[in-house]
Amino acid sequence: MSTVSELKTSVIINVYKRYQYLPFALESVFTQSVKPNEVIVIADDPDKVPYRDKVYVIESKDEKYGTKIIEGFRASTGDLIFFLEDDDLFHKDKVKIVKEIFQSKKDVVAVHNLQEYIDTEGNVVMDHNRFS
């Protein structure tokens, strides 16, 4: 494993039949204040994945989420691995913040974050019951 300051970061994105959201998810990764070292997309239809020159695509017809994540994990070369769903977005400083946590706390093995719900215009939705 690398020293903390040079930790490699990988983002694994799972996409299954929701390709209309994928460009937004990918943009939230590409515009990180600290760029990940690699982006892996697990897709049931690789031809629909945009930015093919910036991502490593793995085709998976398996509908099981766990199987897809394992495939992405095996292909990853990162020391820190981030998971993102096709219809979710990363905060612009996610990679930076998580790397800082691992740099300052040597006994951390996982980080879970809070989430905000947004509407189609990007506004924060306060009524989370709409999504239950």
TrEMBL record:
Residues 10-119 form the Glycosyltransferase 2-like domain. It comes from Sulfolobus acidocaldarius (strain ATCC 33909 / DSM 639 / JCM 8929 / NBRC 15157 / NCIMB 11770). InterPro entries: Glyco_trans_2-like (IPR001173), Nucleotide-diphossugar_trans (IPR029044). One of its GO terms (molecular function) is hexosyltransferase activity. Transmembrane segments: none annotated. SUPFAM superfamilies: Nucleotide-diphospho-sugar transferases. This is Glycosyltransferase 2-like domain-containing protein. Pfam families: Glycos_transf_2.
